[in-house]
Amino acid sequence: MEEDKSLESKYIQQHLANERTYLAWVRTSIAIIGIGFLASTLHFNSIREVSQFADTIAVFISIFSLLIGLIIIFFATFQYFAVRKNINRQTFASANHLIKISTAIILSIFLLLGFYLISILF
């Protein structure tokens, strides 16, 4: 146990950077969840009525954003502990899978928002 503490204190800068990265992923997931709630709130609080298809898309965006936000928090936590272990072992592996998956998810949310906007305009 004492050896673990000495390893962590030896790499303080790296551990602090790892924590900042984790908190950035948490902020990203909160923003994604917020986009979903914003889309559904704006939709259902609008004055004019729109199609059932637009209602379905708004609800789907909200639920999808919530689930994706929670999944990102889960994977960010997993990544945080994996990087922490790698820092202490003096090895490095980049987080390219998490970044690729998050980019694809964010693009899909924007596509859903685009479909939603098209459905309420026409």
TrEMBL record:
One of its GO terms (cellular component) is plasma membrane. PANTHER family: DUF202 DOMAIN-CONTAINING PROTEIN, FGR18P. InterPro entries: DUF202, IM_YidH-like. Its main location: membrane. Residues 14-85 form the DUF202 domain. The chain crosses the membrane at residues 21-44, 56-78, 98-121. It comes from the Bacteria. Keywords: Cell membrane, Membrane, Transmembrane, Transmembrane helix. It is a multi-pass membrane protein. It is found in: Cell membrane. The keyword Ligase does not apply. It holds the Pfam family DUF202. This is DUF202 domain-containing protein. The keyword rRNA-binding does not apply.
